[in-house]
Amino acid sequence: MKLRPVYAVLEREVVRMFRQRGRLLSAMVRPLIWLFVIGAGFGAIMDQARGVPYQYFLVPGVLGMTMLFGAMLAALTTVYDKESGVMRMMIVAPLPHAWIVIAKLLSAALAGIVQALLLLVVLALLGYLEPRTDWILLSVALVTTSLACGGIGMLTASFTRTLDNFAAIMNFVIFPVFFLSGSLYPVHDLPQALRWIATLNPYTYGVDLLKHATLPRVADFGAGFDLAVLAGFTLAALAAASWRFSQESAYEPMIHVLAGRRG
């Protein structure tokens, strides 16, 4: 019985995603700009990274970027549901809050996977995927990285009360998470202080797992270690977001709206 409301929330988010075709199209533009513009610029300076042409080194990074931004924008709907009052109706339903968070996290992860698959088709047509790509490991990397990105999005959404705050906090979260992840350069080549910060970033291990699947010789950590960190972080994020949604302040914006004093 608990799976039925989870499925309902998931179906609602999927329908909403495919109705926003502009969002799916724009999700392709951002990583391709990084690949062809930023990649060409940095490639002219450093030529190769770990013995790989720089633009090819960026492929796992732009795949991870697609999932990170896709999951964060999907999490935005959670904040929208708070402001519109939909979240309040979900919270008062006879359903553990954790199931609401699980459904939202799964929908955010699914949005990231769909956008990453569309980008993979484009990259394959352009010849940016090596023939030796491990497709099974790549599938595992897409799922685990998207779930971790969904966890980052749900944590951000659970501590955000309004859409305006979410946009500000998203920029504060998403750019440090992306730039300190090994998406643009090998983690082990960073200065010591930045390397330590990157190793504390769970998204780093998603990008590294994508490297194992597409360009194994440029990976910084072991694939098993990447999977363990991603799984541990996703469970921790799920627990923290569930706890946050169990607090009364999770639907405070709707109370403010009803009271005529928006927060």
Summarize the structure.
This protein is an all-alpha fold and about 260 residues long. The chain has helices at about 5-20, 20-45, 55-85, 85-90, 95-125, 135-160, 165-180, 190-200, 200-215, 225-245, 250-260; strands spanning about 50, 50-55.
Describe this entry's structure for a reader.
It is a single chain. The chain has 263 residues and is an all-alpha fold. The protein starts with a helix and ends with a helix. The mean pLDDT is 82. The chain is globular and about 55 Å long. The relative contact order is 0.15. Helix content is 78%, strand content 2%. A hairpin with a 2-residue loop joins strand 1 (48-49) and strand 2 (52-53). The chain has a two-stranded antiparallel ribbon. The chain has helices at 3-19, 21-46, 54-84, 86-92, 97-126, 135-158, 163-179, 192-200, 202-214, 223-245, 252-259; strands spanning 48-49, 52-53.
